[in-house]
Specification:
69% helix; Farnesyl Diphosphate Synthase; homodimer; mainly alpha
């Protein structure tokens, strides 16, 4: 939870609202939702294994920075968290990922077909929270959420399409990340502002701030996936490389002289640690380590400039500035 | 298109609105949406291969019966058709179906992972049509749509869960159908009424009417899947039986003395026509043919009684009565 930093104070209220949103419905779908959200183990026993809740906490903090109560942002906060989990459940099917937060992914537990249903349930339940709100900013907030999901789906489409390509450019990759990760974090921020009753321009700037932050977050994640400290991330070093994921450093290095050897190694069995070490070496020689760091910092700086342009005082937006810095300084 | 009967007159306006809803967006997702909706072949050449558009046409006819212009119902009509197609795209992945309307299903064309994305895109784009409407009844309409999708997802969950069970009861099966098929047809009717500005009680009665009709529709479909006329349906006779689908007649017969032989035959290779013929014979001996017919007619009668209770004149609701009769009299 450390990366939520100062935002973690919203967690108890948020958690209660999220539980309330899942208080009734089809028992099996609710049970699996509790598993995915980390509240329960597969056997129904209590657990504490969920994600960091970055998006909803950000949504609430933005509302607070805009002078409203964080409680006003709850329908949006719950909506973005459920939409985020919907995307994780479907992504894990699409990417054939076996583990999330160290536990079997939903489709591993219930099969692909039912996991598609589970994702659709989480998505629908999430949207309802916002659609049923009568707050003045709710319709704008819902429109932002739909826009974000369309961009998220298009981003996921690109991500899958990139798997079979070895000529993806930096610009294409960042465009994919803007959709897949930036759009929803941006919507979380924009929705918080809209539900706080902020004006259209301030809402849009905060949305853009969140989107840049989301891109910085993912680029930094790609950095950690190649050079993260094993003791901090809890994953093996170079976990993305071991899984042969086409992250930003790999995309960058493939466009250089190292590309040919790299493509060759990416087709080799993932278990060989010598191959993994050689890949990381190639990435570094290609300058991908520095460029990835540079891009993460540059998006974070862009975000900070956008935040400064919102007209919010440093006092009101203190938590948002701090959150922005944590995004690219975290080591896991 | 024959089963749309008198409602088909709304088709040109509806088609234009549906095309307008898909005028912009990610090019690949739009291209595949046009394929799924039957406007294009896989190679992008023009086609005329879509579904019957029953839900949107019903939505428009209900609005008209309530004294509004069918045009007022367009945001809802487009929404329900896109939501319907979202469910078909995901269902085809889940059921491993290879063909729909005689053409390869989406996942056959683009793989499961991208077909999940395509479904999510169609769903989101559909919801947006209604969410962006400023009509007075739009919020009620959207709430009905969300409720319907949750029930549809729960129905699909049950349908998949039933595949591995041989003790499904008639009541359980009908409950599944009410969710999987009834909910969205009910929502189509209720949304048409809501967008026409009808009062809450009339909206709810028309929603219930549509739901009963949806159940009658599916039960009759199950009938045709066992005893449909090959020349009319364009499928081989007993197409559901050949595919070893657990339709209502099968569920009914499994609970009788024929159950054991039936279960045995359902595990046998689907290609053997002698097995298919024997299965149909067992269904008839178990009385499943009559009971299925009886249930379809009984839901259709219930629907007609609900329609009579709405306060709409026979003149205004003439198209709705005719549509209701066509549902259980169609031979394909």
């Amino acid at each position: 939870m450390s990366s939520a930093g100062p935002l973690a104070r919203h967690l108890p209220i948020f958690d209660a609202a999220l539980r309330a949103a899942l208080a009734d419905g089809p028992p099996e779908l609710l049970r699996l939702s509790r598993y995915v959200l980390g509240w329960e183990s597969a056997d129904g026993s209590p657990a504490a294994a969920g994600g960091k809740r970055l998006r909803p906490l950000l949504c609430m903090e933005v509302a607070s920075a805009c002078g409203a109560s964080p409680v006003d942002a709850l329908p949006g906060a719950v909506a973005v968290e459920l939409v985020h989990n919907f995307s994780l459940v479907h992504d894990d099917i699409q990417d054939r990922d076996l583990l999330r937060h160290g536990r079997p992914t939903a489709w591993q537990l219930i099969g692909e077909a039912q996991a598609i249903n589970l994702g659709n349930f989480l998505y629908t339940r999430g949207l309802r929270q916002l659609a049923e709100s009568r707050a003045p900013g709710a319709q704008l907030a819902l429109a932002m959420l739909f826009e974000a999901v369309e961009r998220m789906v298009a981003g996921q489409w690109l991500d899958l399409a990139f798997e079979s390509r070895s000529d993806v450019t930096e610009a294409e990759y960042l465009d994919m990340v803007a959709g897949k990760t930036g759009a929803l974090l941006g919507a979380a921020a924009g929705i918080g502002a809209a539900l706080a009753g902020a004006g259209r321009e301030q809402v849009e700037r905060l949305r853009q701030w969140g989107e840049r932050l989301g891109i910085a977050f993912q680029v930094h994640d790609d950095y950690l996936g190649a050079w993260g400290d094993v003791s901090a991330t809890g994953k093996s070093t170079s976990s993305d490389i071991v899984r042969r994921k086409k992250t930003l450093p790999v995309v960058l290095a493939m466009a250089t002289g190292a590309g040919e050897e790299l493509r060759e190694l990416y087709r080799s069995p993932a278990e060989d640690p010598a191959h993994t070490a050689r890949i990381v070496q190639l990435l570094e020689r290609a300058g991908a380590r520095e460029r990835t760091r540079e891009l993460a910092n540059s998006f974070a700086r862009e975000a900070e400039a956008l935040l400064a342009s919102t007209g919010l005082t440093a006092g009101a937006a203190g938590g948002l500035y701090e959150f922005g810095r944590l995004i690219v300084e975290r080591d896991r």
